[in-house]
Amino acid sequence: MKKAQCRPHCAACCIAPSITSPLPGMPDGKPAGVPCVQLDEALRCKVFGKPERPAFCAGLQPSTEMCGTSRDGALAWLAQLEHLTLPEL
User: Fold this and answer.
1) Helix (H) or strand (E) holding 65
2) b/e per residue 9-47 (b: at least 16 CB within 10 A)
3) I need a surface site. Which of 5, 20, 30, 78 has the fewest CB within 10 A?
4) How far apart are CA 32 and CA 17, in angstroms?
5) C-alpha–C-alpha distance, residues 59 and 76, integer Å
6) How far apart are the C-alpha atoms of 63 and 24, rounded to whole Å?
7) How far is CA 61 from CA 28, 37, 49, 58, 87, in A?
8) Does the pLDDT value for residue 43 go beyond 70?
């Protein structure tokens, strides 16, 4: 998987996946498809590089496979991954 640079005004990785650990402003985590409350007006993470940033977020690195060629493509890819990794009931 090739490393990619974050696309300006994208935030697909802060919207599409669910986050099950607490994060500032979202003590119960974040459901899939809901924008993180830590996104600023430019869709940048306000807790990037800070200790309160969840490990999930720090571990999710941009790649050409994940980010694709557009924000819509990244949202779709991450939504599909979220769907494929849901626990079976």
Assistant:
1) helix 64-67
2) ebbbbbbbbebeeebeebeeebeeeeebebeeeebebeb
3) 5
4) 5
5) 19
6) 26
7) 23, 20, 13, 7, 23
8) yes
**Is pLDDT at 3 greater than 80 in this prediction?**
no
The label of the residue with tokens 């200790």 reads 51
Tokens 């790649």 belong to residue: 63
Residue 64 pLDDT greater than 80, yes or no: yes
pTM over 0.90: no
> How many helices, marked H, and strands, marked E, lie in the chain?
3, 0
Residue 39 DSSP label = B
